[in-house]
Amino acid sequence: MNTLQRIFFTVLFSTFFCPFNMFPQTNPVKDPEIGVVEHLDDFIPQDIYLIDEDSQKVVLTDLIDKPTILNFVYFRCPGICSPLMEGIADVMDKSDLVPGIDYQVLTISFDPRETIDLGIHKKKNYLNLVTQKERIARGWRFFVSDSASIARATNAVGFKYKRVGNDFTHAASVIVVSPDKKITRYLNGLYFLPFEWKMAIIEASKGQSGPSINKILQYCYSYDPVGQTYVLNVTKVAGTLIIFFALVIFLILILKPQKNK
Question: How far is the first Cα of the chain from the last one, in angstroms, to the nearest whole number?
Fold first, then answer.
């Protein structure tokens, strides 16, 4: 092995195999101001209070007795909240799992100014989009809450948002929770495949947590607060692909058997 080859393998080994915690982290990665930070295997706190559709005060953890999907929105949202809840309505209508029996969806407003009357009105709108209206109505419940409980709930699940004037900038995601109140999965985006929806619920029923592609999305996509959506970071993705193929070509060149002269 010549000098160039030794240098290359030393750099390659240091880059990919040395533990990161061997080096001091002077600039630790901070949580994003807007987006989702996964808290897999964490448990929902017991001191989160909500107001239900009957205007009754309830405790969030008391409601979670089956696989539960938490959906944080605000009902006046002019952006992604409506298509997100349309996506939830659509996948609930297509799924062969029974809402209210196999699982439930709890939609919680993170705007403490909103009343449950507005939530009930929104629920009726989304129920008009489905064919299994009565069944979904039983398994999809809407809530509002006070600022303290909202903060505890959103912090517990890693849902990050920012108030801008009278509205909020936030991401689109739902959180899957097991019957024992453990966070098991995050489903990101506005629309969901019936298969991934069903698998997330089945895994939650067993208490099995699974990683989402959130980490990959955070690397490949950047959040656009103006459009309130994720956009592909072309520079980062292209740079990664160029480095990958350059390494592959370099490995082929240096490992290719050389003919004896």
Answer: 17
Residues contacting residue 118 through CB under 8 Å, at least 6 positions apart: 75, 76, 109, 144
CB atoms within 10 A of CB 119: 23
Over residues 197-216, mean pLDDT: 77
- For the entire predicted model, the pTM comes to 0.70
Q: Are 39 and 183 in contact (CB under 8 A)?
A: yes
CB neighbourhood size of 48 (10 A): 22
Structural domains in the chain plus CATH codes: 35-211 (3.40.30.10)
Whether residue 192 contacts residue 84, with contact meaning beta carbons closer than 8 Å, is answered with no
Q: Give all strands of the β-sheet with 104-109 in edge-to-edge order.
A: 140-143, 104-109, 68-73, 173-177, 183-188
Amino acid present at 4: L
> Which amino acid would we find at residue 87?
G
